Amino acid sequence: MDIWESVIEQIKTDLEACDETAIYEMLQSVPRENLRAYLPEGEVHTSTATWLDICNQEEKLTNE
Question: Domain range spanning residue 12?
Answer without folding.
Answer: 3-63
